[in-house]
Recover the amino acids of this structure.
């Protein structure tokens, strides 16, 4: 699903800092990978590079057979629209859309018909346990519920790859575990691949594989017990 | 200023540079427009008043009558009265100068009396050896003395004419021209005028035995009111006695309604500026809610928070006021240099006053600027204080506080409309339609209060459309009516003003056009001079016109002016054949008087006379004609856009029978079929001399009239443009501030596949929707305002009725342009937020 080869990225500065040094990564469909590492190691930047939101100096990123590096802004936008799902730490649920509309947003962007978009968004909400909250405004939801909405939004359009950057960073441990379980379950159920960036060992433990980003390279440390 | 106030509140203005600058600019523009209009008109009125006082010297009272004059026997009667210490007679002539565009004011004076009362008018003979230098020069019947201004205007090259090298001035009386010797100067006069011996002036201008004014100096210690009471019974009909100061303020009265209207337009620009401050401050308060929560948690009192925010508004208002005051003086100086003191209506044409700094006036406008700043901040400050600190600490963002409940707001809007309706019923106060202006304010308030409700109504119409950008924009529009209010309040005010003015001006212009068609039915018009000036025609001249080939018929007009009382400006009496083909544009009554007063000669009064003297068809009208009070029956009321202070039409035959005055000012010529107007005009010029008469076709008169009309309203268009620009500033401020708070949203949307261009389109769409609501509400408000302008303000100010005509095409074009412009402005304002990396944007907590 995702192939990264010889990725090099240097951050400007004096002296310049090498963030990725010949970095390689391969993630298959249905697999959930956690990336851990110290703050500033470049975990989030790697996600951004994969999504085409940040540029690399050299190397190749291929998603579903499509090379990401070198695409123009519009092509990258189209690629994200179809292939990616995102879950953010701060939820980023639009306050002026209802819960159902927030979930349907990626389908709107893909041009899905209203009836289909609503049906799929509603089905997705049911899967994350918010079946009866579609008409609600986001401000009446709790933090955990908002993140469930975000997960539903990330998966509703059946993306090939879901990128989640500290998806439980704003939640208490109990709620975080529940949300994470839901996220991974939904990624696997949809047959997508998932990359999870986290500081939390508890979160990383739920992934199929854990990679540590250290000095510009990813080291596979297997599965945490 | 406390350090909290300075460091927390006022300093935040510097962080919000765009919003602060636009708020400041909008207040500055409002202040500048209002103050500049006041400075320009104030200087013109000062100059005018000083001129009157200068010309009146030490006189306490003036006896004035019709411009054509009154019997000079009155002078002898008054001069001998014990109340009068000195009396000085004056014959004032607007002398037509052949070839000149404007007449010359010539004062015929009694040289032996003028020194005691109006020493400034004393003529001083030239000392050059080639001209008359004898001490009695002023008494010669062909001598005229010119002020420096008149000399510079009439004899700009200092040309020497005449056989003996003397300077000559040609004046016209009737169709005759007279050569006068320019015998010296009038050093005390600063106006454009000439002075002659009164007997010579009477002789040259055919006014033997007539005076137009007598200036009186009362005996020491005598009260002016007592003197008026004692002397008034001695005056013939149509002649009044008034203090000199009253004469000086007459110009102010003549132009007051026009000046107040311009000031109101400037006030609306300032009000729009206040709305912009409201938009900027509201958004800032919402964005800083968490900051306020922290401050409140740390011990800042609710009142201190409100005061701090109001201080921000006051600082913006004060800075805007200072810039506005400076700008106003700059604008006034520019206006004086480029156009004199006249802003288009012609009240102060030819005046070039000097710019003076008026401290109280400037301070007053500075205070208005501060009031706009504080007023615009009041509601946001109240909202900020209302939120509990705990909630403020946990909730931030652009969702904003709740405006007043929908039902209460709708009730307030209806109440404001009802108040507007009641205010329209109030009579004018001192000729100023205060009720009309109150209605304008109430309608604007109602429109802004109704904006959220109308927004909800419109959202129901916007249900269609599947494009994601449209759905996102629509969702935000539906979910945040308060955003529409914040962004669109300024647009509502400025669009309401602009559309109301457009409807009023269009109605007025079309009505003037129709009116011209009715009052100009002839093929050709000939004028010896305007009613005020010295040119005229007589029956002999009329006979020569009738005898010309191609002339099928002629109708004549004699125009004189009359004073009905000392307090009112003169009205115009038009003596003309009424029933002979050129009808009056009647709005009430008919061509014949009602049976009740059938024995009286008929008169047709203009709307200004009907309103000012509360007259209606069938009622009796008394006019001072030929030194006696004459009664007429009001047969009808007619529309007259030419004479603001009123006109009365009577049959020429009646006028001639009452006065013996057979002079004619204008002749309307009907041509025989197949004859060319140009050929007849050429023949008329050959007959009388091209420089002695003005000849025009109806089309030319119409073109000139409409040109003057458009010039009059040019200044109002400029002021409307400023108000609309300030309204757009409001859109820009709102979207710039909101875009800054929505970086996270934009970042998320970019993650999900929108491009920067898509985000720009989204902002443009939101700007279009917000402005659309402002424009729609503004147009509704504007329609209501236009009714107030046409039926109340215009009617009470100028006594002109007009037919309601909406310029649909222009309004649609204006509205569409404004909405599209708002979309562009919103996109531009949000460009900064769009530039930020999507990656960083989603990292920010919102």
């Amino acid at each position: 699903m995702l192939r990264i080869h010889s990725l090099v990225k240097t951050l400007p500065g004096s002296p310049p800092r090498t963030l990725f040094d010949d970095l390689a990564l391969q993630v298959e469909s249905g697999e959930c990978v956690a990336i851990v590492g110290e703050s500033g190691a470049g975990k989030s930047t790697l996600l951004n590079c994969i999504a085409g939101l940040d540029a690399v100096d050299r190397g190749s990123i291929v998603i579903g057979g499509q090379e990401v590096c070198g695409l123009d802004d519009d092509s990258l936008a189209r690629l994200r629209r179809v292939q990616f799902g995102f879950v953010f730490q701060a939820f980023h649920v639009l306050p002026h859309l209802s819960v159902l509309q927030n979930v349907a947003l990626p389908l709107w962007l893909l041009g899905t018909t209203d009836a289909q978009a609503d049906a799929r968004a509603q089905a997705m909400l049911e899967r994350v346990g918010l079946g009866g909250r579609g008409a609600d405004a986001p401000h009446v939801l709790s933090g955990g519920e908002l993140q469930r909405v975000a997960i539903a939004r990330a998966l509703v359009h059946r993306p090939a790859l879901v990128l989640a950057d500290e998806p439980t960073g704003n939640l208490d441990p109990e709620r975080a575990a529940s949300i994470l379980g839901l996220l991974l379950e939904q990624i696997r159920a949809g047959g997508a691949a998932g990359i999870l960036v986290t500081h939390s060992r508890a979160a990383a433990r739920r992934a199929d594989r854990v990679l540590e980003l250290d000095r510009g390279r990813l080291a596979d440390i297997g599965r945490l017990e | 200023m406390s350090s909290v106030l300075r460091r927390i509140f006022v300093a935040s203005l510097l962080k919000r540079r765009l919003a602060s600058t636009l708020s400041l600019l909008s207040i500055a523009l409002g202040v500048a427009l209002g103050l500049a209009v006041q400075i320009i008109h104030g200087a013109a009125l000062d100059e005018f008043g000083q001129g009157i006082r200068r010309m009146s010297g030490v006189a306490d009272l003036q006896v004035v009558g019709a411009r054509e004059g009154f019997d000079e026997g009155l002078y002898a009667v008054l001069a001998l009265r014990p109340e009068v210490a000195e009396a000085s007679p004056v014959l004032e002539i607007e002398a037509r100068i052949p070839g000149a565009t404007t007449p010359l004011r010539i004062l015929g004076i009694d040289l032996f009396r003028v020194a005691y009362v109006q020493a400034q008018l004393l003529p001083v003979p030239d000392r050059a050896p080639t001209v008359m230098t004898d001490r009695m020069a002023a008494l010669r019947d062909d001598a005229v003395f010119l002020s420096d201004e008149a000399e510079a205007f009439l004899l700009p090259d200092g040309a020497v004419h005449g056989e003996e090298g003397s300077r000559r001035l040609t004046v016209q009386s009737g169709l005759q021209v007279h050569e006068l010797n320019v015998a010296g100067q009038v050093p005390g006069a600063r106006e454009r005028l000439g002075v002659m011996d009164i007997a010579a002036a009477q002789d040259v201008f055919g006014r033997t035995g007539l005076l137009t004014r007598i200036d009186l100096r009362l005996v020491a210690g005598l009260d002016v009111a007592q003197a008026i009471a004692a002397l008034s019974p001695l005056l013939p009909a149509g002649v009044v006695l008034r203090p000199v100061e009253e004469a000086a303020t007459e110009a102010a009265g003549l132009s007051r309604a026009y000046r107040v209207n311009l000031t109101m337009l400037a006030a609306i620009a300032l009000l729009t500026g206040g709305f912009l401050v409201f938009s900027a401050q509201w958004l800032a308060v919402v964005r800083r809610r968490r900051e306020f929560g922290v401050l409140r948690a740390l011990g800042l009192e609710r009142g201190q928070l409100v005061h701090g925010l109001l201080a921000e508004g006051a600082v913006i208002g004060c800075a805007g006021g200072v810039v506005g005051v400076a700008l106003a003086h700059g604008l006034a100086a520019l206006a004086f240099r480029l156009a004199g003191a006249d802003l288009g209506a012609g009240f102060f044409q030819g005046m070039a006053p000097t710019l003076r700094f008026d401290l109280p006036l400037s301070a007053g406008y500075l205070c208005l600027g501060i009031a706009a700043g504080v007023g615009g901040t009041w509601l946001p400050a109240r909202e900020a204080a209302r939120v509990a600190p705990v909630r403020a600490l946990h909730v931030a963002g652009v969702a904003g506080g709740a405006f007043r409940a929908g039902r209460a707001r709708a009730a307030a809007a209806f109440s404001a409309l009802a108040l507007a309706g009641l205010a329209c019923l109030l009579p004018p106060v001192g000729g100023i339609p205060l009720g009309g202006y109150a209605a304008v304010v109430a309608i604007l308030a109602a429109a802004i209060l109704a904006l959220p409700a109308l927004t909800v109504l419109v959202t129901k119409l916007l249900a269609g459309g599947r494009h994601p950008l449209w759905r996102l924009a629509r969702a935000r529009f539906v979910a945040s009516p308060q955003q529409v209010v914040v962004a669109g309040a300024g647009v509502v005010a400025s669009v309401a003003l602009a559309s109301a003015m457009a409807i009023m001006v269009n109605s007025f212009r079309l009505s003037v056009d129709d009116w011209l068609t009715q009052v100009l039915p002839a093929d050709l018009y000939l004028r010896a001079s305007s009613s005020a000036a010295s040119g005229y025609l007589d029956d002999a001249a009329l006979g020569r016109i009738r005898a010309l080939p191609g002339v099928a018929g002629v109708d004549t007009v004699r125009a004189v002016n009359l004073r009905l009382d000392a307090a009112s400006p003169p009205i115009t009496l038009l003596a003309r054949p009424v029933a002979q083909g050129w009808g009056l544009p009647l709005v009430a009554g008919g061509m014949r008087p009602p049976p009740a007063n059938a024995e009286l000669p008929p008169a047709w009064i203009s709307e200004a006379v009907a309103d000012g003297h509360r007259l209606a068809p069938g009622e009796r009208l008394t006019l001072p004609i030929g030194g006696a009070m004459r009664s007429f029956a009001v047969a009808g009321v007619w529309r007259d856009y030419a004479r603001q202070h009123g006109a009365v039409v009577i049959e020429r035959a009646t006028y001639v029978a009452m006065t013996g005055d057979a002079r004619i000012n204008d002749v309307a010529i009907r041509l025989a079929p197949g004859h060319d107007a140009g050929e007849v005009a050429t023949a008329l010029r050959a007959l009388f001399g091209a420089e002695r008469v003005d000849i025009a076709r109806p089309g030319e008169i119409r073109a000139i009239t409409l040109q003057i009309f458009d010039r009059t309203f040019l200044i109002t268009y400029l002021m409307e443009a400023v108000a609309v620009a300030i309204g757009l500033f409001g859109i820009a401020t709102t979207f710039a501030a909101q875009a800054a708070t929505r970086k996270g949203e934009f970042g998320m949307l970019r993650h999900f596949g929108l491009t920067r261009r898509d985000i720009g389109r989204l902002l443009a769409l939101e700007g279009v929707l917000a402005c659309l609501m402002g424009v729609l509400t503004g147009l509704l408000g504007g329609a209501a305002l236009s009714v107030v302008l046409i039926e109340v303000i215009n009617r009470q100010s100028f006594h002109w009725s007009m037919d309601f005509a909406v310029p649909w095409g222009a309004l649609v074009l204006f509205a569409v342009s404004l909405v599209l412009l708002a979309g562009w402005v919103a996109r531009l304002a949000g460009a900064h937020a769009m530039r930020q990396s999507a990656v960083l944007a989603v990292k920010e907590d919102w």
In short: Chain B is about 55% helix and 15% strand. The interface with chain A takes residues 397, 399, 466, 468, 471-472, 475-476, 478-480, 744-745, 747-748, 750-756, 758, 837-839, 842-846 of chain B (CB under 8 Å).
